[in-house]
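Figure-free illustration: sequence to structure, shown twice.
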Amino acid sequence: LGVLEKGLFWIIGLSYFFISYGTYTLVDFIVTYGVMELSIPYSVASLFITVIAFSGVIGGLLLMALSDRIGRKKSLVIVQSLVACSIAFIMAVGNRVPFLIVGLGWFGFLYGAIWPMYGACARDYFPKEMTGAVFGGMTIFYGVGAMISPVLTGHLADITGTFRWSFGLGASTALIAALCIG
């Protein structure tokens, strides 16, 4: 497959892996973190995913339009760096729910744009006739990141007794994603 011979494919794929890992660290465990570590009632913590989802729709629409103007790579570097900052903010605010909501809204706004931007990379940086193979191949990187994130996040939380190390690793992988594609 010709796409595997292209260095840019591997760079974008690695970036996709790292951002997948980083974002799923938070998304998969934010409710558990809220309930078990921050002592927030489940009825409140379960709304965290709703905040991420709704803000993600808005972010997906607005940030994709912005990425069409300023370029995909530049947009991904900015978005992924801000994802890392949003995770750090979420960790810093503790159990102050209004601030958590702001941080999760910020995270979701950014999160919603990441996946369509990678899809657009397949067409922006590779010949039209390779788009399907490129995006299919890149999706393997995404899938591996999404699959190992909950396993490693949960294990790290179990051995440390906190999600802070796991979320810190998630923020770090978001930064690595930005560095890879930048």
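We now fold a second protein in the same way, so the two outputs can be compared directly.
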Amino acid sequence: PPTIIHPLWIEGKVKHEQLTVLYPKEYHLPELFSIDGLTIKAFNTDHFLGWHNVHISFLVEFENKRIYISGDSHYRKENLDQIRGVDLYIHSLLKEDIVKGRMNKEYAKHFHICEIIDLVREIEPAKLMINHLVDCDWAIDPSVLKGYLRENEISNAIVPVSDTEIFDL
């Protein structure tokens, strides 16, 4: 998306010819990009703060693997058939009241566990990776959430507790 590309370009981390802006032209249809057996579908999705039509999520398909990256939003119901059963769903646990400190973190774990159960039930991912938890003082502690998932017998959720962890599909 343009909001990610621009800072990378300005800071000199990538050259202009290395960039491809992928943003859906039509609200309800994903934009496709393919190169060397890799396909990316960019979907319009609403930001967790309610910003309508400014955010995108990605479905990456490569070598019979499908990975959905929600970013700071969720999926749209009309795209459910395209993402159901993905190998990995990378999901940001974001709720405005939690991020802005209006919800106690101890209560937040209950909200998050319900959100995770709903995602597992609706999306049916082989693995669900919970994102936006490591080193974020406004988020629930990842080790607390990991224990809570274990208590609730949710075995296909991955919760990184360190930014050095590596997971295989």
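Summary for the second example: The mean pLDDT is 84.
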